[in-house]
Specification:
Elements lengths: L1 E6 L5 H10 L12 E4 L4 E6 L1 H10 L4 E5 H7 L4 E5 L5 E8 L13 E4 L2 H10 L5 E4 L6 H4 L5 E6 L3 H5 L2 E11 L1 E5 L6 H19 E9 L3 H7 L7 E4 L5 E9 L3 H11 L2 E7 L6
Parallel strand pairs: 1-3, 1-4, 7-8, 7-9
Antiparallel strand pairs: 2-3, 4-11, 5-11, 6-9, 6-10, 12-14, 12-15, 13-14
Helix pairs in contact: 3-4
Bound molecules: adenosine-5'-triphosphate, 1-O-pyrophosphono-5-O-phosphono-alpha-D-ribofuranose and magnesium ion (MG).
């Protein structure tokens, strides 16, 4: 059986579980369930702290899993990112009292509080900056108020937490993070892993695209197909009225309304959008 780690708590947990459910896997019924055997699919799911997942996968204790890119890099384990999963997006940034520290070089000689010491130590070394890294478990924004640090390095999603503490981010983001699928290179369960990967690609793609159907005057079908090229090629079917054709194509969700407007302007009618609930490409 493939051993697969799933975040049991925190920002990534609910979306990760939802994604696995959409991919057709058994998920836990309540939050106290820590191991779920999906015998039909030959996968055993371990619900673990997201911070620990990269460590388990890197050591080979479990074969693969879902965690944040920032947590993967912080762990510095042998696990590798296979693909981004399109949820749990955040940036990882330095911040300080507005105006106190305004670029990375100015961190030299100061104290930096973070829950991601691996990531920060590596980043400071790459920047050639010597500073004291203070490791905290959470609520690091308060470390400056409490006088434990001059600078923090933390996850920023909306920026609300920073603002509430009177802090401002500075420098380029250290990292853009999101939930990622990770694996141990050379895992012995390569075939089962490939099935999980393909299913997750299916879910990510299904979320990224919608299905567009429309009726098109036959004379305009080439122009319409240029607007909706689909993946391989759009499906064009005859209609009862020979002057019209029915066209069906996948369209990136973000472009749906723009494409519908352009099709309508061209002369297409009965333009319908439907959700794709699963796919294999
Ligand atoms: N608003 C957010 N706050 C914290 N982590 C976030 C946020 N949005 C996305 N993430 C990602 O979630 C992962 C951290 O999850 P983790 O469960 O360790 O912390 P958490 O979500 O802060 O939960 P908690 O602190 O309650 O345990 C990281 O990969 C981080 O980038
Ligand atoms: O930019 P924002 O939208 O404000 O989100 C980022 C904040 O959320 C997380 O904290 P969390 O609430 O998980 O507490 P923690 O620091 O104890 O982990 C994270 O550590 C930041 O503090
Ligand atoms: Mg947190």
């Amino acid at each position: 059986m493939l051993r697969f780690a799933v975040p049991n708590k925190g920002s990534l947990s609910e979306s990760a579980v939802e994604m696995l459910r959409e991919a057709g896997y058994r998920t836990r019924r309540d939050s106290k369930e820590l191991v779920v055997s999906d015998v039909d699919n030959d996968v055993e799911f371990f619900y673990l702290r997201p911070r620990d997942i990269a460590v388990y996968v890197g050591s080979g204790t479990v074969d693969a899993g879902i965690t944040g890119r920032d947590l993967l890099l912080d762990a510095g384990s042998g696990a590798e990112e296979v693909m981004p999963l399109g949820f749990g997006a955040s940036t990882f940034r330095y911040a300080a009292r507005a105006g106190d520290v305004t670029d990375v070089a100015a961190i030299a000689g100061r104290r930096v509080a973070t829950s991601y010491p691996g990531l920060v130590t590596k980043h400071l070394a790459q920047a050639g900056v010597q500073a004291d890294v203070v490791r905290l478990d959470g609520a690091v924004e308060t470390a400056i108020t409490l006088g434990v640090a001059d600078v923090i390095a933390d996850v920023v999603e909306t920026g609300t937490t920073l603002r509430a503490q009177g802090l401002a981010p500075f420098g380029e983001p250290i990292l853009k993070s999101e939930a990622v699928l990770i694996r141990r290179p050379g895992t012995s369960e390569a075939q089962q892993f490939e099935v999980v990967r393909r299913r997750l690609v299916g879910v990510v793609t299904a979320r990224h695209y919608v299905m567009l159907d429309y009726d098109c005057p036959a004379a305009l079908v080439d122009a319409a197909c240029r607007l909706t090229p689909g993946l391989e090629s759009p499906t064009v079917s005859p209609m009862h009225n020979p002057d019209w054709l029915a066209v069906r194509a996948m369209v990136p969700r973000a472009q749906t309304n723009r494409v519908m407007d352009a099709l309508y302007d061209l002369g297409a009618r009965a333009i319908l959008v439907t959700e794709i609930s699963a796919c294999r490409l």
